Amino acid sequence: MTQVYDRIALIGLGLIASSMYWAIKRAGLAGEVTGYARSEGTRDTARNIGLCDRVCDTAREAVEGADLVVLCVPVGAMEQVAQDIAPVLKAGATVSDVGSVKRSVISAVAPHLPDNVHFVPAHPLAGTEHSGPESGFAELYDNRWCIIVPAGGDTDPEAVTRLRSLWEGMGANVDQMDADHHDLVLAVTSHAPHLIAYTMVGVADDLRRVTDSEVIKYSAAGFRDFTRIAASDPTMWRDVFLTNKDATLEILGRFTEELFALQRAIRTGDGDHLFDYFTHTRAIRRGIIEAGQDTDAPDFGRGVPKT
Amino acid sequence: MTQVYDRIALIGLGLIASSMYWAIKRAGLAGEVTGYARSEGTRDTARNIGLCDRVCDTAREAVEGADLVVLCVPVGAMEQVAQDIAPVLKAGATVSDVGSVKRSVISAVAPHLPDNVHFVPAHPLAGTEHSGPESGFAELYDNRWCIIVPAGGDTDPEAVTRLRSLWEGMGANVDQMDADHHDLVLAVTSHAPHLIAYTMVGVADDLRRVTDSEVIKYSAAGFRDFTRIAASDPTMWRDVFLTNKDATLEILGRFTEELFALQRAIRTGDGDHLFDYFTHTRAIRRGIIEAGQDTDAPDFGRGVPKT
Question: Which residues of A touch B194 (CB under 8 A)?
Fold first, then answer.
């Protein structure tokens, strides 16, 4: 694989950045990768596990001379980081990010950047419920989508192409769309489902007085999958909901409407309505398997649990 | 492993029964296993893939001489099957089932059974989103729970012990509880989460006009897990909701309350409320990992998707 950037700076060293580092190294996509994390403990961990070629004690030090700077901090922290690093950005450098929300990141970051850098926001649709510098792995982006969301109509095409090459080199498929559309699609496919999973797990926990530890002990498929989703990073998700408020609330409103209709079918014993609804949703699953975004293995690919 | 029953009859040959067959054979738990399915196509498939030692064309033929008869049909079909086979059940035989709801199965089945058989309902907490005779595999029950729910206080302890040995021989951990308690625990851990997943997938599908095929293309973790849950067998789930109506509606009522509180926090920008809630739900996930009911692999144990 050809080197795409001489020097890349990763600001924030959680799951996404650490997976980027291992994927960049796997394919030799950069000459040097510097890293910075706000917490000293995270920086120490990164140094201990060999995460980044050089871990710096300030964000400014990390971005100095970098051809690409990727903001991998929670959406709510992007503005402050942008303000901090703006004065030392190299002329002609590209600034990107990995935030799950794009409209508000663009509003927060763009005004602080000098005119001589390219701002090319992006969002890799990949993750696990784990967080922190030790949670990353090189394969995270393999065959996953990364959506590039140019901040304005005048974005330099060459800067976009180069960022695209980086993500493709890390294993991802790359697509491009505008910020508002991105935020709506993600509200449906990710943000609303996460809030719903968090809610259901919270309800189950309330019931623990009634059901003792049985909720955990007998966590069947269904609840078990919800708990995995609801174990995602709290800071990241708080920021997602606060910054993609309108689209998330719209989808949740539609969700509640549908849920009430199904509850009514249960209450009135309308089996046909339930059967038709469940038959229909099954077809959507088929589409996702065909799109290569999940495995169809009979055991979910999880393998046989150790006894 | 020692043989537990001379002859076992499996009525209904879907995911649960076919997995039972392979697990019984793996451990040599029965002398002969007969099988029956209502559809001729299913019986043909079973014969072609060697599912069951003998596939019979009627339920009566399959249960004749059986020491254990397991009803593996949807909950809504149990009563009719019980009525049908009652006259030919062997004296001293045990009748069991694998239904996801227990109170209504007991009410539907018990009145039809002769006094000289033992009725010992059970529910293995295991499954995948696949259905049909070809979806089974011997490992499905390994380290999963099977809950035995004796139909009345006067159930023969020896019949319970024997059924317990069978499930343990198939790899399961066995526990015992009463029907109402079972139905409440399952409403929390399985039934309500399934309805919620079905609902969210339905909402996403409605939005396809807006978002084109992007909902499928960009299905991030979150929605992707929901679609897996929402791909489960429609007949089975229709029957579950209709027969565990009260407990499911109660849990859904609590769910809606919580969801409204979180929506309000989003609307008012109450980040602390969201953060605290999400931090709390994360701990529950930890409990499930520790209980050995899911894997903690960073990639969910799914392995690297094929490109």
Answer: 222
